[in-house]
Amino acid sequence: MTRMVTVNLKINGKQYSEEAEPRLLLVHFIRDALKLKGTHIGCDTGHCGACTILWDGKPVKSCQILAVQAEGANIMTVEGLEPEDGKLSIEQESFRENFAQQCGYCTPGFLMMTRYLIRNNEEMTREEIREKLHGNYCMCTGYQQIVDAVQDAQRKYFATKK
Amino acid sequence: MYPKSFEYLRAKSVDQALQYLKDNEGSRVIAGGQSLLPMLKSRLYQPTVLVDINFIPELREVKLGSNGDLRIGAMVTHYDVIENSTIRENAPILSSTAENIADVQIRNRGTIGGSICEADPSADYLPTLMALDARVVLKTTESSREVKVEDFIQGPFETLAEDGEMLVEVIVPPSKANYRVEKYARRKADFAIASVAAIVSLSKDGKVVDARIATGAQQDKPHRLREIESALKGKASKSVNLEAIIGPATEELEPLDDLHGGPEYRKHVLRGMLSRMLGDLLSGKEA
Amino acid sequence: MTSQKSSTESLVLQSEKGTKQNVGKRVPRIEDLRIVKGKAGYTDDIEMADQHYAAFLFSPYAHARIKSIDVSKALELPGVSLVITGKDIKELTKPMSSRAATKSPTSHYILAVDKVRYMGEPVAAVVARSKYVAADAAELIEVEYEPLKVVASIEDAMKKDAPLIYPELDTNEMISDHFDFGDVKKAFSEADKIVKERIRIHRYASTPLETFVVNAYYDPTREELTIYASDQQPGRTVQSVERTIGIPSSRIHLIVPPVGGGFGYKLAIWQYVALASLMSKMVGKPVKWVQTRTESLYAFHRPRGYMDAEFALRKDGKVLGMKLVDWQADANWPYVAALYSLIKFANMSGTYEIRNYSFEYHCVATNDPPIVQDRGVGKPFMAFALERMMDFSADALGIDRVKIRQVNSVPAEKMPYTAGSGEVYESGNYPEAIRRALEHSQFQKKLEEQAKFRKEGRYVGIGIATGIEPGTSNLGYYFLSKAGDPDYNGAGQMATVEVAADGVVKVNMNGPEIGTGHVTTIAQVVADVFGITPEEVNVDAWYDSIHGHLTYAGTYSNAFNDVYLGAVLTASNQLKDKILNIASSLLKEDREELYLANNYICKLENDKEKRLVGLKEIARISYGRLLSFPKGEEPGLKVTAGYINRTAKPFVRSDFNVQLTHSNSVHVCFVEVFPENWNIKILDYAIVHDAGKVINPGIVDGLAIGSTVSGIGGALYEEFVFDEQGTNLSLTFGDYLKPTAMESPEIRVDQMESPAPNTVLGTKAVGEGGAITSLAAVAGAVEDALKPFNVKITGLPITPEKIWNMVKDTPEYKKINKEGQ
After folding, report:
1. Which of A160, B69, C345, C642 is the most exposed place for a label (fewest CB within 10 A)?
2. A48 closest CB neighbour out of C206, C209, C710
């Protein structure tokens, strides 16, 4: 047996300290050790983006990182999106209103991208949104309603800033 | 997919990392991990010890050397290569290259040092770094040496790095000359079917002062197209017959052959790219 | 059972009495409230106590004899509790058998026995305490193979001395048949022109983002098998598990949490459900298996094959007759052999009036991996072949590609139309659909743009294709080849509706939720029946076999809008009847004056709604206050009802409906091909889609767009590539190219509504149309763009490299490359 390593990290504002085998993937750590099941696995090779999380505010693919590498990291998963008042966040609301999900398996990854993109870009065109989302696969929607949702979310976000 | 077991050593400094590498036979560095993780997961690669260099702040630095050279730490991410103003000013072609790499998420985690050590024949950075005459700094506990990127890359997934040696820095001579860098792939995140990095300086009277051109995905490693370079140098840009140069100069290439593109097609695409990109550069069009 | 007519009437009745009608509205999806919070709850999210994990070892060879398997090292690994191989399987299970083929192999088990027939066939299985250890153990199993000669193509398989995939059959051709409709001979003798072409289809697949996941636990204290699985056809899985591993179906409890994408792929999971179940029984632990992406790309695709098509044409474009010979490499998994051919024969004339045709098919076993009923099954190829032939016919006659489609469309006044095969097209207006598509796509403007671009040296093209999108499978085509009374049919389903003790209306559709909006669609319909809002209806997104189901329960074959809604409505109406009867007795009010609205039993007094008693109160009495409960009724408010679409015909070769509803669409695609690298960009994409009555436009638009992009993937990007040793080279999403948001076009959808007369709400098939119609529209557009090069596209995917190979020796190519210098 290999040596276990203690990983201390913050997820969705909460501090965790858990043992992990060095080979354990961050996505398995999040799902299996911390029981946060909203982050999904879709491809194993870093193509599909279903496992996208925010790491210090920037999106990364949690199946491409070892859990032990997340020491000291500040992470947000889809479970962290929801405001405390129980309402939906801007991103969640826009995805729902625009029918941006069918089976929903890819949705958490797209939502994390949206959280990042709408806050870190000037108003994006549809083409720009498509370009920035190409690391996330959706097998159901054909992406159009997802692009609608991201555009809508950015408009809503900008409206809160006015 | 689940990696096989390995020991994990977290280095806090370059010296500690080098010591770990020296003390552990079969150890290997993990940088951003964006290429390494899929290989660990498919078990194509089974190291016994991984030395993590993500916790070494000095490897994330970007500096200008006293001679004006850009010094980019091995752990500088693709995102930083795009955004860092020192890199953008001194080697804008490098920032443009990074924009073509994979996707937003991978650019946030993947690093320039890791990408170079991967030595993929279709990798994005290599043609650009070759065109820039960039060097890498390789260190062991005892020694430090500088090697040209062109020499460092030996073949597919093969470099000059020896056991216990680690790439710590990339040195890029500044280049503000006009450039083009492009890759052609079916989808943006895919490895190139053909890629070209070209830097061309023209004198005021339209003569080619300097031309440095490299290509990827055309052979077992990216390389400079020196025949084209020398055919251009010193010529009046208006009088160049590109087709007459590109055809023969690319004749001997033996491009990769896989399901994304056969050798003849890759060569065809390369020629089209060279013709258009060099045509633009010779006419002085800014990027 | 309540008749279809009264179901529909009661819906109308409710909306007349002042409650808001929900059917037809763009109601935001209820299931999305969980999905956007990351709380959809897929199968892999469920863990059982003392959870164990399975891993499989898959064959690296496409065809090989298994000489020996050494499992000792795997068994020695700490944490490993079981390793099984074909030896155990041969003892403990029954082989798979075919459903359609008359000759059924007897040597294909759920784990390879003695030999492997495709790369990726499971050879051994492991159970361990963690998924990482299970993977370690699988790697330690040592198998000695003796490679056999690989049968890499249909042509190879049909050679005299070809190695046999199933030696017990003495042939690689599992089944073939020939159908004749009308007078084909006469049609060809009267033809002004005959056009002949071989059209090919490649291997591709839908690849849902969630892979196969199964979690099985055999509880010895109850002697019951509990299974969680991402399964699209649980009714059938229960039967298959019973048949293969011998646990009686009455002792199998199968639960399907929301499925992360189905697309037909999840119909093939039963083999692994059986394996996980068997292993759980052997180790006494819950066994979970989560398929990796590479494992999911090994097998269960669409088959490759070709069709030799011959069209007899009249000068004006009228297709007098067709001769079609279909070859499919779809027999290397006996379970669904012949399906890809058989599903085509009845709908082969598409939206056209072509009375005379022959259809012959050959189902061949090769070392290609197994197939599954992927989105639309054989119909994307059916439409591709038919529509390409329409284009070639138009070109051969020198008439317009739109015109030939107009000439041959079934005229509106002939609806309902019975095709030569017996397939009944229940409603629709195909000429009008074309007219609307020309308008919606701004076809005339596109032609003008194209002319302008061509002058500028740009290669721009327009493609048009029509398509039939059948729904609800009569399934009985299996029995056209196998005599006997079939044990299953897809023309019916069951559903459960209740008013729970707390007064909440609750529904279980007794079929899996695969992402196509069933929860909300059902909520809209049931809300209208009970006069409440969709949000108030608690629709369970989980399938649970304890609710009861028909043998072939599942979400497949575009049947939801027909048979599941039929069952939901039937149960809802029965329950509503019961509630009103109870209320009438309790209140001593005339039953006919009572109705349900806003959770109350109401009646009209002086044209004003009077609330008499709450639904909650009726529930309280029905479940608990039994002394007050009226005589003559049964306590409890729960109804499980079945529904059959009665237009399904019995199985007669000459008069047969493969499917029962028929949506149709017209796609217009506008592309540009770039001569530097021959890459293709879709500039515009317009769809007219007629799926009958639309219950939720947001959902239906999404399915039309999404299915179209899946077809575009098949047309331009996706292919499983094999070398001559049958090695699958496309085992990651880096090598099997799915379209991303960048490759997917903006798609404009125009919904037409021709209600189906044979479904309860007039609804029809929705989820497959784009996958069926898009292939030919894209191919036609690319071919049109390349018109100056005079190329013909008869196969897919159309890659830039293939285009370059087609054009590089043409005069136009030489011309532009000379000019380029």
Report:
1. A160
2. C209
